[in-house]
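Quick log. Single chain, no ligands specified.
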Amino acid sequence: MKANTSYEEQNLICSYLQLLLVDRIFHRDLQVLTNHPLLRTPVLYIEVLSSGMERVTLLLSEIQMEFARKDIRITNIKSNKEGLWADAKIRGQEMRVVFPLSQYKNELYSRMRVYLGGMNHEI
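-> predicted structure:
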């Protein structure tokens, strides 16, 4: 992180990355649930997952508005088995935010639980 970027801006980018990942996971899970032949009541699970996806979409749009307000643009997102990172421009200044797998995996599951209506006091 460079001197002209704040901790808040870096956290905002990390939240955005996590939300994108959660959205991708929820979409994949929705496809699996929709096509699963052994579920007796797939509609219930699909409703819970769809509700979680709506929450994630709302949060993503709020972060995107905050990005516009703070002049933040994500220019590139990459991931591998070690984590994910984003290249961004903050007020024209280029930077990279790195989010190691060890750091985001537990937080990711906690967030997913909250978005699906479960209780978690860590967030």
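The two ends are 24 Å apart (CA to CA).
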